[in-house]
Design brief:
By secondary structure, the protein is mainly β. Helix content is 4%, strand content 46%. It contains 4 helices and 36 strands. The strands form 7 sheets. Strands 8, 9, 10, 11, 12 and 13 form a 6-stranded antiparallel β-sheet that branches. It has a 6-stranded antiparallel β-sheet with strand order 24-35-26-31-32-33. The relative contact order is 0.11. This is Beta-fructofuranosidase. One of its GO terms (biological process) is carbohydrate metabolic process. Belongs to the glycosyl hydrolase 32 family.
Amino acid sequence: MGWYHLFYQYNPDSAIWGNITWGHAVSKDLINWFHLPLAMVPDHWYDIQGVMTGSATILPDGQIIMLYSGNAFDLSQLQCLAYPLNSSDPLLLDWIKYADNPILFPPPGVGLKDFRHPSTLWIGPDGKYRMVMGSKHNDTIGCALVYHTTNFTHFELLDDVLHSVAGTGMWECVDLYPVSTTDTNGLDMSDYGSGSGGVKYVLKQSGDEDRHDWYAIGSYDPVKDKWYPDDPEMDVGIGLRYDYGKFYASKTFYDPSKKRRVLWGYVGETDPQKDDLIKGWANILNVPRSVVLDTKTQTNLIQWPVEEVETLRSKKHNEFKDVELQPGSLIPLDIGSATQLDISASFEVDSMMLGATLEADVLFNCTTSNGSSARGVLGPFGLVVLADASLTEQTPVYFYIAKNIDGTSRTYFCADESRSSKLLDVGKMVYGSSVPVLHGENYNMRLLVDHSIVESFAQGGRTVITSRVYPTKAIYESAKVFLFNNATGINVKASLKIWKMGGAQLNPFSLFK
């Protein structure tokens, strides 16, 4: 009925985890939101320790059901059903918990605390609805359980799991969805849950032990309810991640109004809890992203900020063309205040110098490197954001090219938090991973900068990094942007467009009425 609904885990009483309740907000555009009254609170024996992660399903007749994990007194994880008092209410203000909750207990052989986060339901070829959930067996083998149902209150557990991967530990927030191999439209599992041509299936899990969101691309057999990876060496939990920075517990949903699949995760804090209590809040959601298969590589996803975020762009923008970056260059970009930005940047590497380099940094890795200050022959080069004028605080985002002795090269995309804050008790990681750069492509990145967050997208969204930083000097009017090339053996030419960004509107329910 024209509204996007967001439900989120929330503690109404404190900025520290606990008393987990479902907050509720609605939006017309995924950017500007109205806060509604709390949707569900922990008030029954089966969820008294928390109304935890769940998923909504809209049935063909328009009815809406919500499955969620409740934490009982002993923290055992029980699956519960809720539904709106009035499905025809566009705001879905009032929610009712099913009288006979819980509808699912941990099955035999599954730990009481290893059974959580029911997915959105979809119909299989036999007319039964499917639901998957995260679990583990033998303590270390992460897996997704599969259930069938016809009435949403009684569920049958299948003997075999949808998929499992040894050594990955407990799987949370499991997600399974189709992606087109040819188009850029998103696909709805309810339309493709019976298997179709021209489609691959993404299986995603949030790793409880490493706190990362892992995905893999493969095929789904709707009769056997089995998922198979295209590349077993890039299986779920050992291959690709949605985001190589601070990003966790994500969910996707299909948006029929724009025929797209939208991804949301939460960006956690790395500061002390005492600081969260002082500021009065902790954790934020990323800018929502559309998700499609990379039709050029067929081996990775493309994530990109939803188009609505561009409504926050200033009418005018700064443009810099063909800025020459010699080895060791650091060039300030005079754009005024640089705390809320949307930056689109392209870097052209001198092909003669790149071709003349025989071997460089074969063993390079973003996370084990010394960040942007470590100079290599072919990197790093990129942008420095959230920096003060003297660079005592800075967050560089950059490319780094490693070249093998056989002439092939591998490109890395990194974000360096090591000098992001003068504070001593906050996280300061060097994040990143490799990114495919195809023949004829320049090196390109898009950065969404928002005071203490940088969301970085490389090569059109093939690799993504979210940085949660805590600047003390590079704030408000003191925040600056620089171009840099810290490579020793290549010249780089940079072209950029930079928009100032307005603030999203986050209004309480009273203003809405």
